[in-house]
Design a protein that fits this description.
alpha/beta; Rossmann fold; 2 domains; seven-stranded mixed sheet; elongated; UTP25_NTPase-like; phosphoprotein; rRNA binding; P-loop_NTPase
């Protein structure tokens, strides 16, 4: 029977897609009729979810084709991640990688990836249902009514209420849609240079000198648990008035709690990554607890009201239940987030909260440290990024109700969804596919994208795909009670209320464009915009002349072809001579890599190549031939370096076809020259191609002052020399 229901709902899905407008009219029509009985909506929700989740098996297969179109099979990444660079151990992953390339199937279908039979927890549906539960009377102050009366002024100032209750007008919505913003600068003690921008009225924030926990409007139990959970980041230097936030957290939380969008491009896995994670988890959990408390309290009020009374005062929810979407790169990140949630909900050791499916979660998201080969030496930033379980295909729903938490909740019964871009991509699907679902993204109120720079190394297309499918009207009603849905959701205005928090290790045009083009928050945005004073070139220790060559391009799309022509006509001829052997060409983009590889083959040049999809044996051979000088050129991708961090020996000439995404890779690659034992060679060279569209990457390598000079100067060639003490 389930199969049939599965088919029919898949068919109805594809039908509804054609007539989206009618679904919306249906929603409006339903508003006039009475809401369905609660029990019905419950079963409907469950069926619906099992339908979307059963898609698990076929979805993954789809992805191999879907992602192939973008030209970068992200399956490759998965393999890279699964065997994080075991130089000595782990041919198995390279094996699957090889199969991946030949038959186009995605490793995600591999049962060991745990994606083939996706588990969802059906057992705890009624316990965690928002419709059928009420505010617990004895939960000491958690009762919203009591809170309303005891602290009336405080509740009206609660940023959550202020943000969600604001009623926008048509003309304001039109204005926001134009994305024409006014902006202003401000300097904060810890965050530095901030740009505030908004389309509506423009207010800048001042940094709070200190935080009063009472003023933060934290929902119980967070007020008492946060200081304990966050203690690990506080130094003895912290003033008691700081109410248990580090200076960085205090300023970030100050911005987050006003519901403005935030872009913070200085996240560092080694230094501040975890304190940032704690801060956004506190904000997300606070939001969910308040939203659910409001629903439960209104359930109780509705239960107690006289029959026939007006019902319009209880608009307290979206069209679907998920409110917070957290997009993170690896399972390890999801594991850490869930642990923070649990510790924030546990008031003390005696009051453990009930977490369903915890053991299963630990098994699927945890990591056995013995799996990692013991003798690998990698830079510490690598160790920090690739700690734990680094599988990048996952998604999990989390429901939170008062004192308990449900992991693996069906999406339509979840408050929070934690997922990787690939995990979302395989369920959102592509146009024309029968099995696809993105209704669960319709009412997301907080979107958190952490470690955005890693998504550039995985597959950025998936992030763009997600942004195109978030906050759309659902194609199906999913058993919602329309008398409880906020008008902002019925008007299809939820994207104007969504807060987006974006954390990255670097400034990048693609990440900026998400923030500038896909965020419509009516309260406005804050971006941290500090400029690098000295660049990573100052960390180059080898004696080396760096020749920076500027190429002129009409626009940002033509720069790709211009660069290629410039390289083959002006740069490559100088290196074709046999004396210029041992030349490594560093290529950030996989597309450029393929284009160069094809050109080198056609020209019959003596070269070898290594990219993120190269099998282990081929990598060893390429390194050997390059070191011995049997191959004159080595084409080398940034993503291979990101996932493996091998030292390449034998480099005498370096060409950066484009500046690296990660600026520290610049000095790292230059310093590889000293890995060969024949002492300093007077003939070492380094050539870098750049254009005016590389301003951000360039300033991260040479610093802001030199960048301005190099972009404005009449000269197109600039020389730096490093290593001359």
């Amino acid at each position: 029977q389930s199969e049939n229901s599965d088919k029919s709902s898949a068919e109805s899905d594809s039908e509804t897609e054609v007539e989206q407008i009618s679904v919306y009219h249906k929603l409006l029509a339903t508003l006039k009729t009475s809401p369905e009985s609660e029990s019905e909506s419950e079963t409907e929700e469950e069926e619906d979810e099992s339908d979307s989740e059963e898609a698990g098996a076929s979805e993954t297969e789809m992805d191999s084709d879907g992602s192939q179109e973008t030209g970068e099979a992200d399956g490759g990444e998965e393999d890279e991640n699964d065997a994080p660079d075991q130089e000595e151990a782990g041919d198995a992953a390279e094996q699957t990688l090889g199969q991946k390339q030949t038959d186009g199937t995605d490793t995600a279908c591999d049962p060991s990836h745990g994606a083939i039979e996706e588990f969802t927890d059906v057992k705890h549906e009624s316990e965690f249902s928002l419709e059928t539960n009420f505010m617990e009377e004895e939960s000491g102050g958690c009762n919203a009514d009591q809170r309303d009366s005891s602290s009336a002024p405080a509740v009206s100032e609660d940023p959550f209420k202020l943000h969600m209750d604001k009623e926008l007008e048509e003309k304001e919505v039109e204005k926001i849609s134009t994305l024409l913003k006014t902006s202003s600068q401000s300097k904060w003690p810890r965050l530095g240079q901030l740009t505030f921008s908004s389309t509506l009225e423009h207010k800048t924030l001042k940094a709070d000198k200190e935080v009063d926990m009472k003023q933060l409007h934290l929902h119980k139990p967070l007020e008492s648990t946060w200081p304990k959970v966050n203690k690990q980041f506080l130094s003895s230097m912290n003033k008691p008035s700081d109410a248990s936030f580090t200076p960085l957290q205090r300023e970030l939380f100050c911005i987050m709690s006003t519901y403005r969008d935030l872009f913070y491009p200085e996240r560092n896995a080694l230094t501040n990554g975890e304190e940032i994670r704690h801060a956004y988890c506190l904000h997300a959990l606070n939001h969910v607890l308040k939203a659910n408390a409001q629903v439960l309290s209104n359930n109780a009020k509705r239960r107690d009201q006289k029959p026939g009374a007006a019902n319009d005062d209880y608009r307290d929810q979206g069209l679907t239940r998920p409110k917070v979407l957290m997009v993170v790169p690896f399972r390890e990140s999801a594991l850490r987030i869930v642990h923070i949630f649990i510790s924030l909900l546990e008031v003390n050791d005696k009051k453990k909260i009930d977490v369903s499916n915890k053991k299963r979660f630990k098994g699927e998201f945890g990591f056995d440290p013995e799996e990692r080969p013991p003798n690998l030496k990698r830079p510490e930033d690598y160790e920090a990024v690739f700690a734990g379980n680094i599988d990048d295909h996952f998604r999990i729903g989390v429901a939170i109700l008062q004192k308990s938490m449900r992991l693996y909740a069906p999406f339509y019964s979840s408050d929070i969804i934690i997922a990787s871009p690939l995990g979302l991509r395989t369920i959102i699907g592509a146009e024309g596919e029968k099995k696809r679902d993105f209704d669960f993204l319709s009412s997301i109120e907080i979107l958190i994208i952490d470690q955005a720079d890693i998504f550039l190394m995985q597959n950025w297309e998936h992030v763009l795909h997600l942004m195109k499918h978030i906050n759309l009207l659902p194609l199906d009603s999913h058993g919602v009670d329309f008398s409880r849905v906020r008008m902002l959701n019925l008007n299809n205005w939820s994207k104007f209320y969504r807060q987006t928090l974006l954390f990255s290790a670097l400034q990048d045009p693609q990440i900026n464009s998400i923030f500038n083009k896909h965020c419509f928050n009516y309260v406005g945005q804050v971006a941290v915009r500090n400029v690098p004073l000295s660049g990573s070139i100052s960390h180059v220790v080898v004696q080396l002349p760096h020749v920076f060559r500027r190429l002129e391009a009409e626009n940002s799309t033509s720069v790709i072809d211009t660069r290629f022509q410039f390289f083959i006509n002006q740069v490559l001829p100088e290196y074709r001579d046999a004396i210029m052997s041992h030349t490594l060409i560093f290529v950030p983009s996989y597309f450029d890599f393929v284009r160069l590889r094809n050109y080198f083959k056609k020209e019959d040049l003596n070269f070898t190549h290594i990219c993120e999809y190269t099998k282990k044996g081929a990598v060893c051979r390429a390194r050997h031939f390059f070191l011995k000088g049997e191959k004159q050129f080595l084409l080398f991708t940034e993503r291979f370096h990101f996932y493996k961090r091998y030292t390449i020996k034998g480099i005498r000439n370096l060409i950066f076809y484009e500046l690296p995404t990660y600026s520290h890779f610049y000095s790292e690659i230059c310093n590889m020259m000293k890995a060969t034992d024949n002492g300093v060679d007077a003939t070492w060279t380094c050539t870098v191609l750049y254009s005016k569209y590389d301003a951000q990457k360039l300033s991260a390598v040479v610093g802001i002052d030199r960048t301005a000079q190099m972009l404005q100067s009449k000269k197109t060639v600039h020389l730096f020399v490093t290593g001359e003490n």
